[in-house]
Amino acid sequence: MLFPTHLLVAVGISRLADHSWVRRRLPSAPTLSAGWLVAGAALPDIVDKPLGALGVVDTYHSVGHSVLLVPLAVAVAARYRRGLALAVGWGSHLALDAFHVVVNGRAGDALFLAWPVRTRSDPLALPPVEFARFYVGSPSFYVELGLWLAAVLIVLRSRLDAGREDGR
Ligand SMILES: [Zn+2]
User: How confident is the model at residue 124 (pLDDT cuts 50, 70, 90)?
Assistant: First the structure.
């Protein structure tokens, strides 16, 4: 998925975790910091895109996108409240990237999750700008458009509700 959509979903997870409906049903569930969720969601690309661009590895999905980091993420999540949010954000990035390749009919490309045990070079080896050109118009791209549209509608609705509250 595109980088901004990962950040959007992280904010959405934070909002969902704080929603009164969720808090009523899961009162003991920890709250998740939006900032740390967003940081976790950004982490895979912040680590892996420079590594790919510098030629350290031959793909743009490597160590930051690898499930080999799950033990580290679990340890950080178990030890620190912020670490939990960071790990959830990181996990959401991996899940969405895997979801996007499956939706686009390239389920085999989800093997990026097993880096460096298994690697797929095409199209994950495309630099970010070329990848965006490749990606626009794919089924997953339209899923992302739907997510952004939903986010805009949610923000507009909350502003309208707030306006009604002020008008009373
Ligand atoms: Zn990614």
Answer: low
State the residue range of the domain holding 146. Answer: 3-157
Q: Please tell me the distance from the alpha carbon of residue 156 to that of residue 140, in angstroms, as a whole number.
A: 24
The answer to whether residue 164 sits within a structural domain is no
Give the model confidence (pLDDT) of 15-61 as tens digits.
998 888 888 888 888 889 999 999 999 999 999 999 988 989 888 88
Query: How many domains is the chain partitioned into structurally?
Result: 1
Overall average pLDDT of the 58-80 stretch:
93
CA of 9 to the centre of ligand 1 (A): 13
Q: How far is the CA of 70 from the centre of ligand 1 (A)?
A: 15
Rounded to the nearest angstrom, the distance between the alpha carbon of 155 and the centre of ligand 1 is 26
165 inside domain? no
